[in-house]
Amino acid sequence: MALLEVKNVFKSYEREILHDLNFCVQKGEVIGIIGESGCGKSTLARILCHIEKPTHGDLLFENQKNITREIQMIFQNPIESFSPRMKIRQFLYEPYHYYEHLNKKEALPLIIKMLYQVGMDETCLDKYPHELSGGQLQRIAIARALIVKPTLLICDEITSSLDQIVQDDIVCLLKQFVQNKDTSILFISHDLSLVQQFCKRVIVLKDGKIIEKGTIQQLYKSENEVVQNLLKAAYLNG
Ligand SMILES: Nc1ncnc2c1ncn2[C@@H]1O[C@H](COP(=O)(O)OP(=O)(O)OP(=O)(O)O)[C@@H](O)[C@H]1O
Ligand SMILES: [Mg+2]
């Protein structure tokens, strides 16, 4: 059985944004969603993690009971993951408190260990989000997601607001995470050269519709012009 099944999902605001989306995410699968700016990727991400409801259609998630824990999202703009008045210490303590019922003293060594895993250290703990850079915040957002241990992690363009060097570091970090086979990852990007580093299977969106889905090898056989342009851009980037 699939971890997540998306069935006939539509979303409209003033106009239709997503049109009849159907796909599955298997347990432990890393799947890419790709498409140009404005095609509806972030709208889909918000629907999948239940920030918004679809206008029509169903999301069947294996474990419906504990969805806020099981599905985590890392945002395009790192600051969106944070509350402006909450210190990093509290932000990283919360999942240990809520999900594992640890007190602050018990959680602290685990928090520090996790910070080192994402290339940070304990000096950030008493800072507020605005005192850190975008790359540092994105590392901390990843650390928090790792602490929660979701079954589905949605990464929405998580490197696109960062410098190239920081982007590469974050990609390395995520690759380590991908080796943890228990977590399914939905990796959203406009850049196929990035997506093909992680994902065997890719879904291509255009104007809110799925125009192609399959392995990277299958995409190479696609005659669709949009897919061919994505492949060309990936070749130039990679
Ligand atoms: N809350 C909203 N109300 C009205 N329109 C919206 C809303 N959110 C998104 N849209 C519209 O939906 C379309 C898709 O937006 P979305 O952010 O999902 O695209 P995207 O693929 O993530 O783009 P990008 O690559 O630039 O991040 C856009 O035309 C956008 O203006
Ligand atoms: Mg987006």
Summarize the structure.
The protein has 238 residues and is of the alpha/beta class.
Helical proportion, percent range? 25-40%
Identify the strand order in the major beta sheet: 5-6-7-3-8-9
What's the story with the biggest beta sheet?
6 strands, mixed
How many DSSP-defined strands?
9
CATH architecture of one domain: 3-Layer(aba) Sandwich
User: Helix segment count?
Assistant: 9
Q: Which molecules other than protein and nucleic acid are bound? A: adenosine-5'-triphosphate, magnesium ion
The CATH topology name of one domain reads Rossmann fold
- How many angstroms separate the termini? 35 Å
**Secondary-structure element series:** EEEHEHEHHHEHEHEEHH
Question: What's the overall geometry?
Answer: globular
Rg measurement, Å: 18 Å
User: What is the CATH C-level name of one domain?
Assistant: Alpha Beta
For the residues shown, what is the average pLDDT?
91
User: What structural class should be given to the helix and strand makeup?
Assistant: alpha/beta
Proportion of residues in β-strands: 15-25%
What would you give as the CATH superfamily of one domain?
P-loop containing nucleotide triphosphate hydrolases
Uncertain spans, ≥5 residues at pLDDT below 50? none
